[in-house]
Amino acid sequence: MDSVIELDGLEVRFGGRPILKKLKASLTGRSIGLLGPNGAGKSTLLNTLLGFYAPTGGSARVLGLDIRTQAREVRGLIGYMPENDAFIASMSGVRFVRMMAELAGLPREQALERAHEAFFYVGLGEVRYRPLGTYSLGMKQSAKLAQAIAHGPKLLFLDEPTNGLDPPARARMIQLIQEIRDRGDLRLIVSSHLLRDVEECCDQVLILKDGNIAAYCDLEQERRSNRRFLELETRGASNGCFLEALERLGCETAQGAQGRIKLILPEGLEIRRLYEAAAEQQIQIRRLNHKRDSLEDIFLKAMEAADGRV
Amino acid sequence: MSNRLITFGEVSRFYGEVLGINRVNLAIPPGITSLVGPNGSGKTTLMNLMTGLIRPTRGDIRVLGVRPDEPEKLGPLIGYCAQFDNFPKGLTGYQFLYSFLRIRGMNDAECEERTRTALATVNLAEAAQRPVAAYSKGMRQRIKLAQAIAHDPQIVVLDEPLNGLDPMARAETIELFQEWGGKGRHVIVSSHILHEVDRISDQVILLSHGYVVAEGQIQGVRSEVKDQPMQILIRCDQPNALAARLFLQDHVVEAKIHPDGKGILLRTTDADQFYLMLNRIVLETGMEVESVAPADDDVNSVYQYLIGGEGGTT
Amino acid sequence: MAVYKKTYRPYEGPLTASWSRFLVIRRYAFEDLRRSRFLTIFYLASFIYPLICALIIWVEHNASALKLLNLEQASRLIGVDAGFYMTLLGWQSMMALFLAAFIGPGLVSPDLTNNALSLYLSRPFSRTEYVVGKLAVLLTLLSLMTWVPGLLLYALQSYLEGWDWAAAHTRIASGTFLGAGIWILLIALLALALSAWVKWKPAAGALLFGIFFVASGFGGAINAVQDTKWGYLLNVSNLVGTVWVQLFEGDDPTNNGAVFFRQAPGSVIPVWLCWAALLVLCLACLYMLSRKIRGAEVVR
């Protein structure tokens, strides 16, 4: 895929203090997660790409446009969903999104049409005439997403999109983000502290630490290469014999609490053999899955590597 | 025994006409208890009642045997980390902790020591001399946490404590909760992140529209939801063959093939039987099993069943 | 049967001209203001005085009307001269101050209260365009109240009196335009700056008045205590009055300013200093605005 963002030695300082230190990367991928501890520079990076801060050194290209010289065109292609509240309390939802779309260059009628469409798309169809000040937190988040997509951008910046949402609203937001990602014509940068969200929504991940890039990797590839790691949850007689049987088959095992077992399958061993062992011993395999938290490992490794301590 | 519990007896709290919580009965043992529910379901009301910040309209609350309207007795027992992000102006992190400890009546040396310990626990020792107003969101969250634990209370009540924390800080804070829970303290946490709740909680309380819809240990709660057969999701290469074999059994009541043709979602009234049978089926049909997962043995599914997708007050 | 699903569609259509985007702000602000019945009535009421002036001009030139009023002898009832126009400008400018105090505070503070500004600026839309757009709201309305009626009355008088009168009195036209211009620019900038810095709308409105009345009192106090004349630099109405006198009448003034906008007694402040002071005030407002109108706060 062609690159969404190219960072070429991008450097940002605030009053002499370096916040982003000569970042160099080429981000491809439909949906890129942006991770990092607090103070790593995630918001600064997004703000710099949007043109709120001027880079003190180096440059960057967004969708092929230089952020220093073509900042205005860059902003025309971006939809931004900030982390904090962002609304005008006295305006109705539709009116607000319509004004934002017009400011992005859409003619009046199209802006109005698309404002309504955006509200239905994010699931706020019923409340679009009510003033934004009366919206609940979940509705405000969805309204922020609506204003980000109404003008038909090519790239979305989502900063903590599930912040403060209760579980159904969170699931809806994730689903929406996944739909947008799967379309292909609208790329995403998702900045979040919740690794689970990033895992579900993103193909690639950029991890920042202390203003440097600590890691940039492709989650799909990682998932594919983790095929041999399994997690089981068992119930039945005693696990001791089962573990022995597994080890006889050549697996490396580690026992967890409540019947949980982590194991590494040797090359060539099929999962059916595990079932054989379980059937012999009347053990139920209640849960079996390939290791989920690859992202957690990647993240922890990145944090460790950057300065030698976790 | 009651001295180890936080009890609510037919407690109701109304704000004028607006319902906070209604006829709540609870007995919360030590360990990590999670409060789960949509926004507006009464979680914050429950926490405010526990800590004595508001009084119930009706009903009786006892915290380790102490009533919340005796703040002199309750104060040393409870630490509260509220949801909101407001701080007294002009204080540094250190001063913030120290002054709140002094209010509790400890002397200078003790306050200093406890402040340092608390700061070290939440990893804010370096930033302690900077004003709280200059802290990032994560740091403010941590200083709030420090304030809640500085006086070493038996009960810690935390309203969305992980909000704004990066993954490492989350993991560290969760470890902290587990440590306290293990030591026999009460850790009451409210959270929207259900998979975390699943991982760390000993018991869970589900709230909706001001009512407690379920409470207890997670596995226990699921099996109480009797009118719903267990759902199990199996990803494999021959879901049809598996389905055919399953329908020969009485306890399987429903089987749904996943749209991508590589998985099957089934419901059974007898999970134990099913799993033992699965072992045999895998061997006999030579099926490749990709993954097996109970689809509703966790807080997420219980949430779906009892509270549903419409969320809270909108 | 075809089933249509509501989905996102990208936008490939035409865009509006890049320079014209600031007008979007003005249009939305006008729609909001029109909803307030009080403002509409107040605005219409501000045209009463110009109408009365028009009537006076017409009566002066209308013989039968004069006969009716028994004023044949006193054919010059009210002199239509520089003073007449300055008085008009003075009244209308004070009404303009009231209007700015009602409208101004609500222009910028709602955008800042809930951080909507970052959304404005994340679009192809700059801080300058934002400020110009908001200014345009006030400038348009205040212009229609101040120099537009002034110039129309000038045209009326010229038409009735003859174009020679116009040629002899061009300073009236230019004075009206420039004098009104400096005033409305000043109060528009002040209103916006206060709206950006003061969240509570009544407070912002009150401060706008305060700058004129309280500051002048303060200036008077300085004059009295320090036995000096420089306190008049704080008195904005003096500053504006002096500037107007120069614009309307040059070096040979017959008036010492307009109602509400008098020159300092004894013409003690040189005109260039008044201009400079007003300019400094405008620049201060622009600086205040630039501090608050940002996409993202620079912390530390």
What does this structure look like?
- The complex is a heterotrimer of chains A (310), B (314) and C (300).
- Chain A is an alpha/beta fold and 310 residues long.
- Chain A has eleven helices and 14 strands.
- In chain A, the strands form three sheets. In chain A, strands 6-7-8-3-9-10 form a six-stranded mixed β-sheet, sandwiched between helices.
- The longest helix of chain A has 17 residues, at 167-183.
- The radius of gyration of chain A is 23 Å and the shape is globular.
- Chain B has 314 residues and is of the alpha/beta class.
- In chain B, helix 3 crosses helix 4 and helix 4 (108-121) crosses helix 5 (137-149).
- Chain C is built from 14 helices and two strands; from the N terminus they run αααααααααααααββα.
- Chain C is globular and about 85 Å long.
- The chains are: A alpha/beta (310), B alpha/beta (314), C mainly alpha (300).
- At the A-B interface, helix 5, helix 6, helix 10, strand 14 and helix 11 of A face helix 5, helix 6, helix 10 and strand 13 of B.
SSE inventory with pairings:
The complex is a heterotrimer of chains A (310), B (314) and C (300).
Chain A: E1 5-14, E2 17-27, E3 31-35, H1 42-50, E4 57-62, E5 65-66, H2 71-77, E6 78-81, H3 93-103, H4 108-121, H5 137-149, E7 155-159, H6 167-183, E8 187-191, H7 195-201, E9 204-209, E10 212-218, H8 219-225, E11 229-235, H9 239-248, E12 252-255, E13 260-264, H10 271-281, E14 284-290, H11 294-307
Parallel strand pairs in A: 3-8, 3-9, 6-7, 7-8
Antiparallel strand pairs in A: 1-2, 1-4, 4-5, 9-10, 11-13, 11-14, 12-13
Helix pairs in contact in A: 3-4, 4-5, 9-10
Chain B: E1 6-15, E2 18-28, E3 31-36, H1 43-50, E4 58-63, H2 71-74, E5 78-81, H3 93-103, H4 108-121, H5 137-149, E6 155-159, H6 167-182, E7 186-190, H7 194-200, E8 203-208, E9 211-216, H8 218-224, E10 230-236, H9 239-246, E11 252-257, E12 263-268, H10 271-285, E13 289-294, H11 299-306
Parallel strand pairs in B: 3-7, 3-8, 5-6, 6-7
Antiparallel strand pairs in B: 1-2, 1-4, 8-9, 10-12, 10-13, 11-12
Helix pairs in contact in B: 3-4, 4-5
Chain C: H1 22-34, H2 37-45, H3 48-60, H4 63-68, H5 82-103, H6 105-113, H7 117-121, H8 127-145, H9 147-161, H10 163-168, H11 170-197, H12 201-226, H13 236-249, E1 257-258, E2 261-262, H14 271-292
Antiparallel strand pairs in C: 1-2
